[in-house]
Amino acid sequence: MAGGAASGGGPRADTYAADRTWLLLPAWVTLSILVLAPVAMMLVYSFLTKEFRGGVIWEFSLAAYDQFFFDRGLFGDEPPRIEWTYILIFWRSIWQAGAATLLSLLIGLPTAYYIATRPARQRAVWLFLITIPYWVNLLIRTVSMKFLLRDQGPLNDALLGLGVIDAPLSIVNTNLAVQLGLFYSYLPFMVLPIYAAVERYNFALSEAAADLYATRWVILRRILLPNVRPGIIAGCVLVFVPSLGSFLAPDLLGGARNFMIGSLIEEQFKGNAGNWPFGAAASMILLTLVLILLLAFARAQSRESR
Amino acid sequence: MKKLLTTSALALSLAAGAASAEGKLVIYHWFEYIPQELLDKFAAEHDVEVVMDTYDSNEALLAALKAGAIGTYDVAVPGDYMVQIMAGEGLLDTIAEGELANKGNIQPQWADPAFDPGRTHSIPYQWGSTSFMVNRDVWQGDINTTDILFNPPAELSGKINMLDSQGEVLAMAALHMGIPQCSTDREQLKALNAMLQEAKTHWASFNSDTAKEVLVSGDAAVGQIYDGFGAKARAEGANVEYAFPTQGYVVWMDNVVLLKDAPNRENALKFMDFLLEPENIAAVSNYARYVAGVEGVAPYLDPELATQPESNPPAEAGPGVFIAVCDQATQEVYDQIWTNLKK
Fold first, then answer.
1. What is the pLDDT of residues A78-122, one digit of tens each?
2. Which residues contact B126 (CB under 8 A, 6 or more apart)?
3. B285 in the same domain as B183
4. Residue A252 distance to chain B (closest CA, Å)
């Protein structure tokens, strides 16, 4: 697998240079219809006036952003103060997604390293095993997770049976349950990019370092990790971004006691509030945050390759 | 989760069985709320292809129709207050006098409800109540008080599931405090906000889809729930009892409405007439465990339904009240209180 494209005398990179426009056309059309148009719509809606019980009135308004950033009291007539409600909801989601990403990294990195260092035939089997649970729908996996973690569930039964704990651990309906759910949902997105990076890593470098009396810790920190860094960054982005907007795990495992970004936005369109411009504004703010994050990663990535 | 499976299964089976049907009927309905055999029966009797989509809340129905689904569906099944809202939004067609042959079958008490005077847009589907159930293994004391939800005894604290539905939670809270549902009194609203903040510390979760499952599995010892759904939880073996608080409880009625711009208006009216026949609507009651609003259903009903504790409030039960429709300014305060509760 490794280095397959680089070896051999296949087509050169610029073989199809003249046809570039046509080759890119399908991608551009798909992106414009499925990504750019909806985002543009969202941007426009976030600056419109809300219609009672859902819908918009075509008049320019900053009310949605005002509601996000300023608190005017229960009845809307107090002098504006900074609104912490939505910042708190965003912070909670970022924190949950961050914890899930860290957990995925801690488990995913050694797993990927282990798989990548097996003989080639075994690797395929391990990768296959990693993907098996993901043939099952996300919803069903999340519900199963709840059954596993519940007070009378197998996890608590096992721990009680082994005498590790005296009373069942209440995990369901806590932040920990949400983090575990997100971690489990997105783990392969961490393992696979890191695996790809480790597989390309030239282990002769480790051997050379060892010959020069580098300790195992130094080899890991100064040789291996910098080399597989692009894979780690890709894995973190792939786990963090979907976790941020997810509402399945928070609703089912966290008990939906507190809004996450995803459920807050959903409530504006499907719930009683029916405030479409506010839902659009919250989505735009989320989109901006994610964009900033991705740009930061991309910059870190390109600095690395220079 | 279950609703997704049901929907796709229905879509498949319906599409398969209707190769050469004369016309079509497109229904927008709640999940798990009509037996498949009844849809098949209608399809066979009228040689009509029946297609059904499902939703999980009145607000989701409204949002979908306002977002452009109007003109796709012939009939929908909104709750009482949502009939009033949808009529106000101009989403309903008017049923002219004489268009429904079986309109006379509607029980007198439901023939002229406040949410649809004169039944010009709707017919009754099922009605029932929303209250809560308590696990009797965990709590043996009195359950017929809203204190169980909002000021629970220590044994029940932290084991309560609420419906993830603003209307039902805030209506129950108003009954608990003895204030009107669309109060404009600032002191009352502030007190309501404070009471809910305190009550939330006792709640484990907000979930509507799994309201029954958490009671059956024992994950929750108290759960806000609809009466028929509660009857099913009891039938599945949970030692749970449905409460009729002395402060009152929520009553609702779901209604079949004729949607504006219905593509198959004729078939929609046929379907409404079909559901006004006692035998057919009784089949819905037997399936969903709620009560029909049509005369003469008794001979067709499962005998257990008549004595079902969830449908028979004791004499000392408080009043059953419908969820009120507030004006915009008032509703915005209630939206704010709900956001405060869930932030």
1. 888 898 989 999 999 999 999 999 999 999 999 999 999 999 899
2. B33, B228, B253, B254, B281, B284, B285, B288, B290, B291, B292, B293
3. no
4. 8
What pLDDT sits at residue B12? 44
| CATH code of the domain covering residue B114 | 3.40.190.10
Q: CB distance from B8 to chain A under 8 Å?
A: no
Mean pLDDT of chain B: 91
Residue A78: predicted pLDDT: 86
User: Are B296 and B321 in a shared domain?
Assistant: no
Q: Report the candidate in B173, B210, B226 with the shortest Cα–Cα distance to residue A173.
A: B210
Nearest to A143 among B1, B67, B333 (CB): B1
A71 CB within 8 Å of a chain B CB: no
A contacts of B59 (beta carbons < 8 Å): 270-272, 274
pLDDT in tens, A152-178: 888 888 999 898 888 888 888 888 999
Task: Nearest chain B residue to A138 by CA: give it.
Answer: B1
Q: Which domains does chain A have, with CATH numbers?
A: 87-274 (1.10.3720.10)
Closest in B60, B161, B206 to A270, CB measured? B60
| Phi-psi label, residue A173: left if phi above 0, alpha if psi -120 to 50, beta otherwise | left
Sort A302 into a burial class: Cβ within 10 Å, 0-12 / 13-18 / 19+: exposed
Query: Given CB atoms, is B205 within the 8 Å cutoff of chain A?
Result: yes
- In degrees and rounded to multiples of 5, residue B155 shows phi and psi of -60, -25
Query: Does the structure's ipTM exceed the value 0.85?
Result: no
Asked whether residue B245 falls in the same domain as residue B287, the answer is no
Please identify every stretch of chain A with a pLDDT value under 50, giving residue numbers as ranges.
1-8
Does residue B129 surpass a pLDDT of 70?
yes
pLDDT tens for residues B63-103?
Answer: 899 888 899 999 999 999 999 999 999 999 999 999 999 99
Asked if the Cβ–Cβ distance from A272 to B166 is below 8 Å, we say yes
- In the numeric block, which tokens belong to residue B262? 């219905």
| Least reliable range by pLDDT among B13-27, B160-174, B242-256 | B13-27
Number of domains in chain B: 2
By Cβ distance, the residue of A172, A252, A259 closest to B343 is A259
Residue B57 sits in the same domain as residue B80: yes
Q: For residues A91 and A97, what is the distance between their CA atoms, to the nearest angstrom?
A: 10
B166 touches chain A (CB under 8 A): yes
Q: Check if the beta carbon of residue B208 is closer than 8 Å to that of residue B56.
A: yes
Question: Which domain does B274 fall in, by range?
Answer: 2-126+254-306
pLDDT of residue B89: 92
